[in-house]
Design brief:
The protein has 140 residues and is an alpha+beta fold. It is 30% helix and 11% strand.
Amino acid sequence: MQPVYNGLDIAGDFDDDGNPKSDGIPDFPGDILYEVPTRTGQKDNYNLSLGFSATWSKPLDRKLQDQCKEAAAANIALMQQATANKRLDFEIARLKNCGELKMKGIQFHPKSPYYSVCADVVVNNPPGHQHPHIHKIPKE
């Protein structure tokens, strides 16, 4: 319920003839005359909706699309080559270090988990050793 206030203004000032007239200030401010029901608009609402959307687009100029695909392919090839170069550098460094250590007689114990790191490295010509390697067996 919403209150309706008394806005009556019939006294407070006088005209040139001395008759009472309105002065713009309500005579009984704050007095509630009556109350009216206020519509809130609240009601139950149930909604179920389904939807489907599809979009189809066709590029007007395939040149940019083809250039984008070529650039992506070139970038992928460049990254693959960089990875292959890093792998080759790693393997060459492993081969060099394992070979130098094997020539010095240094290696991991066969039961060590790191033994397999240098297990596939073979030293063919250690210092003072030549191929083909032949020993003479004396006859007695």
